Amino acid sequence: MSWSIETVDLTKRYGDLTAVDRLNIKVEHGEIFGLLGPNGAGKTTVISMLCTMLRPSEGRAKVNGFDVVSQPDNVRKSIGIVFQEPSVDDELTGLENLQLHAMWYGVPRQVRHERIKEVLGLIGLENRKNDLVKTYSGGMRRRLEIGRGLIHHPEVLFLDEPTLGLDPQTRSQIWDYIADLAKKEEMTIVLTTHYMEEAEELCDRIAIIDQGKVIVLDTVDALKESIGGDLVCLRSPKLNVEAFKNLAYVRKIEADKDLLVLTVQNSSQHLQEILERAGKVEYISVRPATLNDVFLHFTGKEIRTESGEGGIFERMMRAEARR
Amino acid sequence: MSVFEAIYGIWLREFKVFRREKSRVITSLFTPLLWIFGFGGGLGPNVSIKDVNYQVFIYPGILAMSILFTSVFFGVYIVWDRKIDILKEILVAPISRTAIFVGKMLGGITDSMIQGTIMLLIGVALGVSFTPVATLLALLFLLVLAIGLVSLGLMLGSVLTSPESFGTIVSFLVFPLFFFSGALYPLENLPPWLMLLTYIDPVTYGVDGIRAVLLGTSRFPVLVDLLILVAFAFTMIEIGTVFFKRMQ
Fold first, then answer.
1. Mean pLDDT in residue range A167-174
2. Phi then psi for A155, rounded to 5 degrees?
C-alpha cells in the first residue's frame, strides 16, 4: 500500500510549548481525511509541516513519497493548498490569479489555457473571471482559492478550515464542491476543521486531535459507534437512576438533578422499557451520537467551548432549543 | 525554462498591481517635484554653484532621490503582502527564494525606472540639455542605483513585520541617505565628519555620476562612480537573497 501521507512521530515545539506531539498518521490515496479539533489543537501546524512551510522539530513526514525536509520542492509541486486565511490577490482579477499560479507552479504554457478553463468551469466563476477579486463575495473567493490550488493537478489537496467565516448556505455549497472534486479528480484531500458537521459531511476518516495529539482516528461511523449508541435524555422530578443500572444496553448513565442522559445501544428497541423504568417523565428526547459526543467522550471536553464549560445537559438543552 | 517563467510571473504580478494603482506614481512624483520647484525654484534665481543655476544643480540629486524613495519603499509591499496573507502563496510555491527575490527586484526596478523616466522628461522642461549619450548614461546610473536600493528595500521588507515600521526606516535610513548624498550641495569644502558620511553613502555616487553625465561637473571620475554603484548593487543582491532564503 502506498500512502499519500505518512508521518512518523512528527513533532513541532515552540520553546516549552509542544504544538504537535508525536503525530503518526497515514492517509490513503484518494480519501478525504479530516483533522478535527478545537482551535489551537495544532491542526494548522500539522498542515504547515506537511506543506514544507514549517520545519518539524522531530520526526519525519512523507507526502506523495517525498520527504518534507529533504525534498521540499517535490512535495510542493505535488500538492495544492488552500490556506485558512484568504490568500488570493485582491488587486488582480480571478483569471489573473489563476494565470500567475499556473506560471509559479510551472504548468506548461500549452496546457495552461485549458487547465484554467477547466478550473473556472469547476468552480463556477467563468462569467466573473475578468472582475477584480475585491468585488467577489466570501464564497466566490473561497472557490477561487480552491480552484487555484487545483490548476497544477496536485495529488494531494490541503484545505485548512475551508469554510471558516462563511455563511451556512455558502458553506454547504463549498462542501458540495469539495465532495464533487474528490469524486471527479480522484485526489487525496486533507482538511482541517473545527466544525463537526463539516468533518461528518465530507470525511472518509477522521483524526480527532487535541493539544497536538491524535486522540482517536477512524471512520465517522466507527467513531460514533465507539460511543456505544444513541443519547436518550429524560427529565423527571422523581428520577430513579438505580433503575437503569445493570442494563446491558445502557452503556453510560449521567445524572444531574432532574435530568438523566443515557447512552443506549439500539435505542429504538429499548425505548419502551426505558420509559417503563423511568416512570412519569416530563420530557424525553432521543438523538444519535455526534462527533462532538465522540470528542467529549475521549477528551472530557467539548470542541465548541474551549473553556470546558457546558456539560452534556446544557448541550442537550441547547440542541433542543435549536430545533 | 520554468524558472524564468516563474520570475516573469512574479514580475508580472508586481507590474499589474503597479499599473492599477496609478496614484502610486503620482504621489511618488510629488516630493521630488516639490524639491525641484518649491525649493530649487526659490533658490535658483539667487544661488548658483560652479556657474550652474541651483535648481539645475540639484536636479540630478533629486533624480537620484526619486529613485531612492521609490526603490526602498518598494520593500513595504512585501510587508503588506504578508499582512494580507498573499505572500504565503508565493513562498509555498515550488520556486527558489532566489527566483522570488529576482522577480520582486525586477518589479521594483520597473516602478523606479518608470518614475526615473518621467523625472528625466521634467528635466527637459528645466532646460537641462540632454544628448542621446548623456540620457542613456543617466538611465544606466539610475538603473544600477535602483538595483541596489530595491534590494535594500526588499531586504528590509523581508524582516519587518508591520507596514508602520517602514516609517521609521524613512527617518533613520532614507532621509540620511538623501541628505548626505550631496544631492543638495557640492561635495567640496565639507567639514570632515560630513565628508566621511558622504563617502559611505552609496547614493553619493549615483548623484555624482548623474551630475557628471548631465551637467559635466562632478567630484569623482564617472567610471569610479559607476564601479562603486555596481559593487553596491551586487552586494545588496547577495545580502537580499540571503534574507529571502531565511524568510518564513
1. 84
2. -85, -30
